[in-house]
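Worked example 4.2. Below are the chains of a multi-component assembly; read each line carefully before continuing.
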Amino acid sequence: MRARILFSLLIFCSVSALFPPAHAQVTSERLLNSAKEPQNWLTYSGDYSGRRFTALDQINSKNVSSLAAKWVYQTGATGKLETTPLVVDGILYATAQDNRAFALDARTGRPIWMYQRAVPADIRPCCGHVNRGLAILGDKVFLGTLDAHVIALDSKTGNVIWDIVAADYRTGYSFTVAPLAVKNLVVLGVSGGEYGVRGFIDAYDANTGDRKWRFYTVPGPGEPGHETWEGDSWKVGGAPAWNTGTYDAVTNQIFWPTGNPAPSNRGAGRAGDNLYSNSLLALDADTGKMNWYFQFTKHDEHDWDATEIPMMIDAGNRHLIAQANRNGFFYVLDRTSGKLVSANAYGKITWSDSKDAEGRPVAKKEASPTLEGHTVCPGALGTTNFMAPTYDPQTSLFYVTARDQCDIFSTAPQPYEAGHAFYGSAYFPSDEAEPYRGFLKAIDPATGEIKWKFEHTSPTWSGALSTAGGLVFTGDAEGNFIALDAASGKPLWHFQMGGAVYAAPMAFAVDGKEYVAIAAGSAVYAFALP
Amino acid sequence: MPKTKTLLLLATILLLGMAGARAADEGNPLGKDPKAAKAGEYEFRINCALCHGLGAHGGGRGPDLTRAQKKHAHSDAELFQVISNGIPGTVMPANGTNGQGVGMTDEEIWQIITYIRSVEVKASATPVGNAAHGKELFYGDANCSLCHMVEGKGGRIGPDLSSVGGSRTRDAIIDSVRNPSRRLAWGLTESTKEFPQEYETVTVVTAEGKEIKGVALNEDNFSVQIIDSSEQVYLLDKDKLRSFKKSRESLMPIYAPDLLSDKDLNDIVAYLISVGAK
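Applying the procedure described above to all two chains together yields the following structure tokens:
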């Protein structure tokens, strides 16, 4: 009997050897060296630099006109689908609204596993029940949930390996961010800037879920920066950290951006710069200790979260970090020192007409919201927002989705109440203003000059992907997935997906075939050459 | 004895349940509390003013809520339902789903209802215009019905005006007749899209050299669907057109007072309000 079992096992093992597993461990070395495996998409932005660029060039400007849909996966979710899938060795991992995660056969879109954590009925995230994606490390994928859990799922089955509570969702904390796996850590930042949370960035041991460090984005008593908050306002100071940062292995620093101070649109009661709201933080990856910070919008009263992707770009010997900020300026910093290199407007702005000694745009006094309400550009949604930008090392251009929209800002004082909305103001577009315009803009980071812009029919929430095939992919609010010539911005191909795009594209390859994937409406779409 | 107790308990539960149901029927637990109205005003600014305007006077998208007569809700309980669940078939979203506010608690919704009730203005007892004459003008000399439909009768190139009298203020309707381009009407609204299509004027020249001028029923980066003044619908690819021009100058003529007197306009508005109130 035993001999028979052994024999069966032996047969099984030799068959396994014939069909090598689709599934290899994702080590931190693989994440560091993601450039060596362009067939995989291992982090939210594709690599640690945040460039959202693929070295794959099978699909290129010469043949993109024949690109065709290969499969569609319906998630069953409603609302805004903001996920960027990961792909590892032929398996695609993604998320959808309401705490969903799933794994698909990346060649066919057929599900391998599905996971959903029940969403508490009393949850009220500001901007939809959204999620932007997973991180992967070892044999686990990592999910931040709307009810502020961090969950490790087995990448082969979707089984829960560990599940920890990071904060109390009833007081407004939630996760919508795609975590970033660095070394043996899972790093993610919290959402809840509209509830008067005290923002933080956490790092968890990927194996156990033990918290290794937490960086509070609003300093407590005795900590540097605490003096930039009036009275007790720091306790409800906001400064969430809801978009994915980047990682520089050379200096072992994580660059993580932060969001608005709370209440988002009312500065009365929180006099001061309100550090570290609307800032870029350089944190030591092992300890979470801050090396430097740069604050883009001081004492913000317009909800201009600085949570846009901080992208690492090198120019000659200069190690830079570039961010197209929600406040309408394109900033380039020295990422070694955190010093400002340049700040140039890349959209319609009225809030600033001067710069300080460091070159940082300074807000005009009259840009503050008033009780009667008055118009400021950009509006509260910003010149850009969570939509992921891309940088193409071949054209040396930074591509970002941008909108020209001005809003009327009107104060509406609100007392803080745990778990309740805490805006302190209202904002809404003026109907009589000119229509809101949306673009994909190609910015030269060296000069801030806009090399070309592709104007959409209406503003879009889609991110962008650049490719070694000379293409930039993006989506529009009308449901089109579009390929543009990276050098000129000329549209070369499009496909109507039937639902607006709130996600950013990514690329992968299986069995030598390149795919480009994007979420739109309620579904994930994958495209390839015939 | 235990049976009696059970019955008593059941009766109590039933009574309590009925009391709860009655409370919802009877309306707002906050009543006319001025503090609640003030809190409601701020909640309104944050969650509602985007469409309904500051002061609830209607922002060109949502109806004027200072009108005592409302189309979709009369009682406080109905208002609560509408705010909580939205109105299917319209752009009114369910609480917390408009991507703008964070969603309100039940108490905050009641505060908003208290606020709305506090700013309501009773309609004037005497009608402002002659609706019967307004209807004659609408379908006759004023030529409104060449482009606009009311209750299934009229033209197609402009927005259907059957419900406009129930949702817009008199001032807003008058303004859109006197200054049609100042605020273009909303057209098609797609469920996943942030902005609805507006009644923009489109002029194209086809590959064959034919000029088409009309209103965009819908448009994206690559295609456009147009209806022209002869109510012909055109489905066009932008890259195949010789030219494509869009304008926010409405196709609707400006009805200045020399073309349509204040009195006649009042009569037309009275007609639209009489239809909209149905």
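Take a moment to check your reading of the output against the notes. The interface with chain B takes residues 79-80, 124-128, 194-195, 373, 408, 410, 412-414, 420-421, 423, 425-426, 428-429, 431-432, 434-436, 456-459, 461, 476-480, 482, 491, 494, 496, 499-500, 521 of chain A (CB under 8 Å). Confidence is low (pLDDT under 50) at residues 13-18 of chain A.
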